[in-house]
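JOB MANIFEST
job_type = single_chain_structure
chain_count = 1
residues = 161
[input]
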Amino acid sequence: MRKLIIALLITATAATFGCENSVGQNNQPKGAKSKAPAEWKKLLNTNQYHIMVEKGTEAPFHNAYYNNHEKGVYVSAATGDVLFSSDDKFESGTGWPSFTKPVSQGKVAIIEDNSYGMTRLEVVEKSTGLHLGHVFDDGPEDRGGKRYCMNSGALKFVKKQ
């Protein structure tokens, strides 16, 4: 019984921090041309800055796009580059918008994240190094098995015309 309780606590902790990252890590993909934090502060709103520059997260189920079912694309809140498509979005049950893949692997970079005592794969915008979310191997098997768990605050939705 004690092992079961410990396993449940570990699972609950992992689920709670499933899309979070620690503040202040500065891993940048090779070739990223990011601005100084003060420059981003002028361009991004408070929530976007917290998520993208400080590598924060937003509350599950209380964000703009977890329950968005409209057709269109999701662009970077910082650069406007198209990152994800509604065609690749799925209901993960995590409370964050989840995608099976980016529109192009050239638009994102994956960086090892060792925050919170676990190893995860952080997804950043390749051109800037700004934090978007994390990628996990628990997505739909029939669509590649990946779950790109993104923060709505790092994205803007552009509805299909």
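[summary]
The domain at 2-159 is CATH 2.170.150.20 (Metal Binding Protein, Guanine Nucleotide Exchange Factor; Chain A).
Confidence is low (pLDDT under 50) at residues 3-26.
exit_status = 0
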